[in-house]
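Severity: low
Component: inverse-folding endpoint
Summary: output formatting inconsistent between runs
Steps to reproduce: submit the following structure tokens with default settings.
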């Protein structure tokens, strides 16, 4: 795993660009790729998301954190078209995404990863990759599975899939069922699959959940590589060590709202953020220094990766 200095150029650029941004909820960014205004999502009487204004800086790694039930996943789903808000506007590269279905959002350059579902676990690694090329659209599912229906485009997709599998060191697993892989390898596959559409922005859903510490550095390296290649990364994560390690900027949600924003160290010492976590996790141990954050993931399951 290369030292962090390998990632100097783009990281420094992202940190420098964000140095001028104010550390407060909804602060404007010098070069926002995503702008969100007044998004709300209610489930019956519960308001899961109520975000007044958020901007995501292009080319940076932004973490979205918050206690369980804060609305992070719902917010992810809204941005990528997998769920629709009750009210609100949001744009990607200046184009409104309101009402745009997920496969079109993906083709516009914004993809999100998904934890491997049961159905996808029963497909091989290469089949999963081919499905990634469909821009997360179900329609091409059968074509992706039956080579005799391939077009020249689909051959290109297979070449791209093989390149990505090699980059993520999953080429030896090409014909294995995805469900047979370790937790860490699944996370690598989720990321590789998202890259099939050549996105500008990648949204990662708990990239460290269920990953053995032995594979942690490799995964972190791949995420930093996305930034090095000029992509924007937004990720939801409970592992605060990881958030500290790779984020250029942190957005904190609490009860559906954005309650804090700023660089990792600033945000994690913000009393409002500590209160939000302690409020949601009365039983969470404080560290020796009195911080609310431990390296334990409060919500994620145990480590299952045996790689
Ligand atoms: N489809 C749904 N129907 C009803 N309530 C929902 C639905 N999806 C989410 N919620 C509720 O909305 C709130 C926000 O949930 P969400 O999963 O977005 O939070 P989160 O911050 O991602 O939590 P976690 O860290 O535990 O994954 C929770 O109270 C949840 O129970």
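Observed output (run 2 of 3):
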């Amino acid at each position: 795993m290369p030292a962090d200095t390998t990632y100097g150029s783009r990281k420094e650029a992202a940190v420098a660009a964000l140095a001028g941004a104010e550390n407060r909820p909804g602060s404007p960014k010098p070069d926002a790729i995503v702008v969100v205004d007044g998004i709300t999502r209610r489930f019956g009487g519960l308001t899961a998301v109520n975000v007044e204004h958020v901007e995501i800086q292009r080319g940076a790694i932004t973490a979205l954190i918050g206690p369980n039930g804060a609305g992070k996943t719902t917010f992810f789903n809204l941005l990528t078209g997998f769920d629709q808000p009750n009210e609100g506007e949001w744009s990607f590269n200046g184009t409104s995404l309101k009402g745009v279905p997920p496969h079109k959002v993906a083709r516009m350059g914004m993809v999100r990863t998904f934890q491997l579902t049961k159905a996808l676990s029963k497909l091989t690694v290469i089949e999963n990759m081919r499905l990634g090329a469909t821009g997360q659209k179900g329609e091409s599912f059968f074509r992706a599975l039956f080579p005799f229906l391939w077009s020249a485009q689909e051959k290109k997709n297979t070449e791209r899939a093989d390149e990505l599998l090699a980059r993520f060191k999953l080429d030896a697993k090409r014909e294995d069922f995805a469900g047979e892989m370790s937790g860490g390898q699944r996370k690598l596959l989720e990321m590789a699959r998202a890259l099939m559409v050549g996105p500008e922005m990648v949204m990662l859903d708990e990239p460290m959940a269920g990953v053995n510490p032995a594979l942690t550095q490799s995964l972190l390296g791949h995420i930093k590589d996305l930034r090095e290649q000029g992509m924007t990364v937004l990720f939801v994560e409970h592992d605060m060590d990881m958030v500290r390690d790779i984020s250029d900027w942190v957005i904190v949600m609490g009860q559906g709202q954005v309650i804090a924003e700023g660089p990792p160290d600033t945000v994690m010492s913000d009393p409002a953020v500590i209160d939000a976590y302690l409020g949601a996790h009365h039983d969470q141990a404080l560290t020796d220094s009195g911080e609310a954050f431990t390296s334990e993931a409060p919500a994620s399951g145990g480590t299952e990766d045996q790689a």
